[in-house]
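Lab channel / #folding
Pinned by the channel admin:
"Please post every new chain as: sequence first, then the structure tokens as a reply. Keep commentary short and put observations after the output so the thread stays searchable."

First post following the new format, from NK:
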Amino acid sequence: MKHKDIDHAMAAKERAELYFAAHPGSPAAVCRPELSIRSGMWVALLGKSMEDAVVGVGSTAETAFRAFDAQFLAALRPSVDHAALNAESAVPRKRVAGITQ
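Reply from TO:
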């Protein structure tokens, strides 16, 4: 490992620990994703590959962790089928004694 690589690894670990201490309940603090630099961008990665993982990318370690947190939480939310919602809202409903059914 080159001296520059060791410096980057130490900086990444330090930045990660600072973020985790500042945001102890965040998905990043709980899951501890791998933090690396790729093409000049910080990447927080939880999984085996970028295709099969929760990923946060940012210009700083902190923005990568914030993006990771947002992606993690978005993955937990149930997806909304907008077409089904639109079709359901288009179904005529009958009114009975002032109540829509």
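NK: Strands lie at 34-38, 41-46, 54-58, 95-96, 99-100.
TO: also worth noting, The chain has a mean pLDDT of 82.
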